[in-house]
Structures are given as structure tokens and as C-alpha cells.
Amino acid sequence: MAEPVVNLRDLLTGKERDHGGVGTILAHRLFAAGSGSRGARFIDLAVLPPGTSIGRHRHGADRETYVVLDGGGLMYRDGEEFPVGPGDVVVNAPHGEHGLRNDGERDLRLLVFEEETDGRRPVAGKGPGGRRDG
């Protein structure tokens, strides 16, 4: 029988220099879709300790979204850098370059999910930090 409750601190594992970033972040894949499934391909929980980063990188024709749960950092997306904090949703467009650095003094916690797209940028998330403009 499965355990009734599993705590993420027991599941998180170290990922050194994620996408060429600095230091070791912690991560756990909460969900992975089966082959041919629609919707999210995966959902990860990531923890970036102070001074660590997810290096700048690109994906193919998929959209990767970061949802900041706690802490803060400096997001890089398609030539622009901007601060992010709790509640910010950052949509990284297909083929776009993005990365995230924890420039604070406490852990940055976020959900990362990826979904297949037709390669177009979504309507929501046009402004810095994924916020709607206007």
C-alpha cells in the first residue's frame, strides 16, 4: 500500500548546472504525460537556493511556463531581464531563450510545466513576468 502522504523534501534531488546554470538546484518531476497524451508534457517542482540558476536555454515548438511559488529572482526571457516573485507566471514562448537566477537570500520555489504548441506565442503573458499588459 502506498504511503498516505509524501513530503517533497524527501523527493527533491540535486541537478548540477541545470541547462548550464550556476550551482545545484533541487527538482522533482511531479507529473509526466504518456506518449501521445495531450496537455502538459510534464510538471516539475524546482527549488533554486540563493546564488543558483537555471541557465539560459531554448526549447523547440513547446511552451514552458514558470509559476513562482515563493522567493524571488531575476528572469531572463528573449533578451530582457526582469524581477519575479511569488504569484508571477512567466510564459516562455516556443523557440524563445529563457533562464532564471535566484539573486535573493532565500530559496526560490517554482512549478515548471511544458506543453506542446503549434509554435505561436500565447495571448496571455505578453508583458514582463508573464503579466497581462493593459
Walk me through this protein's architecture.
With 134 residues, the chain is an all-beta fold. The chain has one domain: Sandwich (Jelly Rolls), CATH 2.60.120. Helices cover 0% and strands 49% of the residues. The chain has no helices and 10 strands. The chain has a 6-stranded antiparallel β-sheet with strand order 1-2-3-10-5-8, with no helix packed on it. Strand 6 and strand 7 form a beta hairpin. The C terminus is likely disordered.
Question: What's the CATH class label?
Answer: Mainly Beta
CATH superfamily: Jelly Rolls
Tally of helical segments: 0
**Average pLDDT value?**
83
Alpha carbon gap, first and last residue? 51 Å
pLDDT < 50 runs, ≥5 residues: 119-134
| Fraction of residues in H or I helices | under 10%
Rg: 15 Å
- The CATH topology label is Jelly Rolls
Query: What percent strand?
Result: over 45%
Summarize the structure.
The chain is an all-beta fold and 134 residues long. It has no helices and ten strands.
What's the structural blueprint in terms of helices and strands?
Blueprint: E1 13-16, E2 24-32, E3 40-48, E4 53-58, E5 62-70, E6 73-77, E7 80-84, E8 89-92, E9 97-101, E10 108-116
Antiparallel strand pairs: 1-2, 2-3, 3-10, 4-9, 5-8, 5-10, 6-7, 6-9
